[in-house]
Amino acid sequence: HWRVIALNLRGQGRSSVPLQGFHIDRRADDIHELLKRAPGSIVVGWSLGALEALNVVHRHGERLIAGLMVVDSSIGEGPPSASGGFVGELRADRAGALDAFLKAIFATAQPARLHDRLLRQALRMPLESSIALFPSTVPREQWRDTVRGLRKPFAYVITRSEEHTSELQSRGLI
Fold this sequence. Notes:
The protein is mainly α. It has helices spanning 24-37, 48-60, 85-92, 94-104, 112-123, 127-132, 140-149, 162-170, and strands spanning 41-46, 65-71, 154-157.
């Protein structure tokens, strides 16, 4: 039988919104603390969570995990755009950026009530705390090197969409 643990990291979901701790290293340490109570877990990280999962391995090693899966992450991409990407969008219009993000992450439109609840939860965290979550000071080579150093099973999953498919085709990857 399998057991699934879905962790709401600080400031997300129904977790508390502390005054500090919104940094990729702190969140990796939070995940590591959970793994101490659930050794042998297969860790799955989606989007920003993928980078946090990789940072757990970077900071603490892979002793406590059975495997790692990263989903829809930027680890294989080039440098971020000069326009500031998603962080720039958050600074310009946070509610609008989060609204668009929430609409984009689901394959089908979600009920308005659920969408509005997710948006309210995302807006609980102060803007600068939200931005601090993005590991802009971590060189992308760190993610590559962490993946290359893994001895445990590893999967890198990309959800195919028209946009992703076009990008991958233009780069000759599919």
